[in-house]
Amino acid sequence: MSDQVRFLLDGKWESVGGTDPTLTVLDWLRQTKGRTGSKEGCAEGDCGACTVLVGSAENGAMSWRAVNGCILFLPMLHGKALRTVESLGGSHPVQQAMVEKHGSQCGFCTPGIVMSLYGRSIGAAGTVEAPVADVLAGNLCRCTGYGPILDAAQSVPVETPNESALVEELDRAGIGSLHLAYDDPLAKARRHWFAPRTADELADLLLEHPEARLVAGATDVGLWVTKQHRMLCEIISIGGIADLNHIEETETGLTLGAAVRYGDTHAALTRLHPDLGELVRRIGAVQVRNAGTVVGNIANGSPIGDMPPALIALGATITLRRGAERRMLALEDFFLDYGKQDRRPGEFVESVFIPRPQHGRMVRIVKLSKRFDSDISAVCGAIALTLSDGKAHDVRIAFGGMAATPKRAPAAEAALSGAVWSQASCEAAAEALAQDFKPLTDMRGSSAYRLAAAGNLLRRLWFEASGQGGTVLELEAVDV
């Protein structure tokens, strides 16, 4: 077990020890290495000015991912490779194209944009088949209007470089588990970072440290440090656990391990149902999806997490593990109250299973937000039902952003279950939502807006399924 964070920076090994385990990659680059090309614009993974590429050796090849350095903790680089805008040397085809196409004005966001486009040019994760606009959705530019940037991107070919030497170097290093201990003078406490390499090691660690905070991609926990200035005393990182990074597709459904990133699920979830694939495309941006995990989104228990309502409507179950003991739980039963889940001390969510919708089952998943890209939901709704003999059966309706947890809508389900499939029954279900939810009013929408929007999803389901036109309730203009 190492007490040094070891990673490759431009092909050369870096070893860092005795440092704050929540030091971000961005701060280390700027303050320790003097690599000031990467910028801090938001410190919350939204603007992309800090974009760097992190690589790992997978199946005999390098797999590169664009990530936000501002919320990536330095120990998460253990056993990986890192490249920054300085790594390109100033004459890379992406940089030349940005100059020739006039893709930069003030220049603050340019290094992050260059790194995103560089990732695309070498076939990095999440870029190969994605439109250029999707690749750049996590990079904000306030000057150019994106036209010249898109032109620059289109002029650079996508090539797969031969990086066998880098793969061999990472494989030869054989990086193992990591344990950092840091005496924090501010907290007057010793802080720990653990990075186990197997699920069994993780299970044992959690029994010894039941209060430890688990992180996968740190896309939420990173903000606790950069925005809330919280001091986390015990952290266990699961990002390097290979036996939790598995995707299993069968005829019955899809199983995702706890370390599976959103970016790696898109194809499999799309095959499960197209609406799931579209939902994933709108979760954060490439940089966020390259770090955050589906199970992390579940375990976090946020009432506005996008994936849980969809998975609840599809009847998903989770496997929780404590030591050698495992138990299965319906996902909807995992969420107890705001910030509270059915998870015992020392227990973690090991995987999630999503049943494959049966042939003919009607499924509709919709995310409503003020911005299309990189925005938090005001309402995220999911509806699944089966039509038989002209009636609705096995109705499951779930929403996020409507309560303290992702939650089913029992009154709306009851109004629709067994009823003749009609506009009237869908209208009754929409009106019953007021019994299920008392949404709050915040910057993303008023309570009235949320109820009207949720009801309109049910009304729209009828119009879409019946092929008829129709009207929905008008929404307050101020909230749209």
Describe what this molecule looks like in 3D.
With 480 residues, the chain is an alpha+beta fold. It has three domains: 1-173, Ubiquitin-like (UB roll) (Roll); 177-347, Uridine Diphospho-n-acetylenolpyruvylglucosamine Reductase, domain 3, CATH 3.30.465.10; 358-480, Enolase-like, domain 1, CATH 3.30.390.50. It is built from 17 helices and 20 strands. The strands form five sheets. Strands 2-1-5-3-4 form a five-stranded mixed sheet. Strands 10-11-16-12-13 form a five-stranded antiparallel sheet. Strands 6-7-9-8 form a four-stranded mixed sheet, with helices on one face. Strand 14 (335-337) and strand 15 (340-341) form a beta hairpin. The protein is globular, with a radius of gyration of 23 Å. It starts with a strand and ends in a 14-residue tail after the last helix. Mean pLDDT is 94; it is low at 470-480.
Give the SSE map.
Layout: E1 5-9, E2 12-16, H1 25-32, E3 51-58, E4 61-68, E5 81-83, H2 93-100, H3 110-121, H4 132-135, H5 147-154, H6 164-173, E6 178-184, E7 189-195, H7 199-208, E8 213-215, H8 221-226, E9 234-237, E10 247-249, E11 253-257, H9 266-272, H10 274-281, H11 286-289, H12 294-300, H13 307-313, E12 317-322, E13 325-330, H14 331-334, E14 335-337, E15 340-341, E16 348-355, E17 362-368, E18 379-388, E19 391-400, E20 407-408, H15 410-416, H16 423-436, H17 447-466
Parallel strand pairs: 1-5, 7-9, 8-9
Antiparallel strand pairs: 1-2, 3-4, 3-5, 6-7, 10-11, 11-16, 12-13, 12-16, 14-15, 17-18, 18-19, 19-20
